[in-house]
Structures are given as C-alpha cells and as structure tokens.
Amino acid sequence: MTPDSLVTLRQHLENRLRALPAEARRLLHGRGRCWPGLEQVTIDWLEGLLLVQLFREPPAEWLDELRSMLLTLGGLPGWAAGGGQGILLQHRYLADSHTEYLLGEPVEQWTITENGLRYRLDLGVRQNSGLFLDMRHGRRWVQAQAQGKRVLNLFAYTCGFSVAAIAGDAKHVVNLDMARAALSRGRENHRLNGHAVDRVSFLGHELFKSWGKVKKLGPYDLVIIDPPSFQKGSFVLGKDYPRVLRRLPELLGRQGLVLSCVNDPEVGPDFLIEAMAAEAPGLVFRQRLENPVEFPDIDPDSGLKAMVFARENA
C-alpha cells in the first residue's frame, strides 16, 4: 500500500467507470497479486454500488488518501452515466468487518444480477455479502448441467448454486448448510427469480451429523461441494474434505457428476484430484472450470479451483 499504488488504483477505476458492466462484476482483484501495492484490496461493482474491501489495515495516511480519491469518483461523468449511487469501504481486517458509507445513503440489502438471475446481498452487516463473484462460471456450469437432475448442494450458504440449478430446470435441489439464516436468504433468492420452492429442500443441519437424511433424499445426479477453507468448530479443509469425498459413492447415481471446489490460495488443484482418487476412486477428473477473467492471479493454482469429476463409466 504505497502512494504509487493509489495513483494506479485511481487510473484503473477512472478507466472502468467509462464502461461499467451491466451486471455485478469485480473491477479490481488485488488479491491475485497482479497489482503491486494493492494485494490487500478488492473492488466490486454491484450495479449502482462500489464496494471497496481492505483485507489488511493500511497506513493511516494511505487510508485518508484512499477515502478522498474514492469520493472524487462520484463527480466523474461515468459515475452518473453508469447509475452510481453509493461507495462503501469495508475493513475486512477488523473483527466486525466495519463498513463506511463514503457516498450515498446507508443500505443493508441490495439486489444484483448475474447471468440474468437475481440475488439479494447483505451489505455492511456481515463479513461476506452473500454471493462470491468468482464462482460465476461455476453457477453457469451448474445451470447448463441441471436439466432433469436431482442436485445436492453441500455447504449451500445462500443457495446460489441452487438458484442456478432450478433456472436450468433441475428436478429437485437439496441445500444443506448449518447456517439457517443463510438458507433463509436462499429461499428469498429463489423467490426473487420466481422459482417454485416445492422443488427445493433446505436442511439447516451440520453435515457430519446428517448423512442419513442426506442419503435418504438421494441418489443425486449432481453433487456440489463448496466448503469454507476453515470454519471454527465445524470444518477444517485438510481433515474434513476427505470425509465428504468418501461419501460420494453412496450418494451419486450411476451417471453422477461432482463439482468439487476449494478457494484456499495455499491449496492447489492436486489436493482435490489426489483426495478424490484416495476416497472415491470410482470418480475421475474431467475438467477444471475457468475462473472469470476479472479474477487474474499471478499463480493460477492459488485462485478458485472448481473441479468436475464423473463416474468412471459416465
């Protein structure tokens, strides 16, 4: 976080404001380490709102200059032309992820669009807003694969994959997440898109205590596994991911597909390939989905890994 990095950031944002995307998109992914001095900064365009996130506490002078620079954006022609309404600065390095509203009225909920589908976000009240933009291609892939399928969405969070699956005419989707508030937002996301929720189940349970119920609702044609890298008291990636994978043979139908994901920069794609071979050897690696171009990374193996596996005879 240097003075030169602020100049770079301003120039980048001024360029992006000249042609803002119609849907929600990341405008700057500093965490991919392609922007020297901005490694702890991300900026998202949320269809009227600019969300700036800091993942490490910056020097006080740099922070003051950042605030001033962001405020000047509201006076640029592209801001009004693109429908700009507010600028938020979120301090993710703080325990409460404090959010400042630099421009515009405070707003706690906001609706965005992705691939023509609508999602409700929480802003300024939680660490994460409710939709991870780097998984855009994953949701699009699920929508394309879902027709007529029974889908199991593990670690469902706010059910973005479920919304995509029902939009793709899935027969039924089972969402499981221990955070019931997140599942409630998932129901709302389905309603935003006019989906009949009689084809969707919401299980607010801890996964490792609920295998019997999950299996009873199967078998599944598509299983989605997108866990947190670490969740205190419930999930540790290296220890618990293999425990999930070894259950797949009893959950999947004969032509079953698996979308297995991990977003820990310290864990490469080989982790999933090797763990799947050890725990569910009947499933073979088919492809890794490309990440959106707006999420560049100096090391592709550090970015999101969304890996497709299939039954060996599929």
UniProtKB/TrEMBL annotation:
Signal peptide annotation: none
Keyword Membrane: no
Gene3D superfamilies: Vaccinia Virus protein VP39
UniProt-listed GO biological process terms: methylation
Keyword S-adenosyl-L-methionine assigned: yes
Pfam families registered for this protein in UniProt: Methyltrans_SAM (PF10672)
GO MF term list: methyltransferase activity
Domain of life per record: Bacteria
EC category name: transferase
Domain (S-adenosylmethionine-dependent methyltransferase) ranges: 25-309
EC number: 2.1.1.-
Keyword set, alphabetical order: Methyltransferase, rRNA processing, S-adenosyl-L-methionine, Transferase
The protein's name: Class I SAM-dependent methyltransferase
Organism of derivation: Stutzerimonas tarimensis
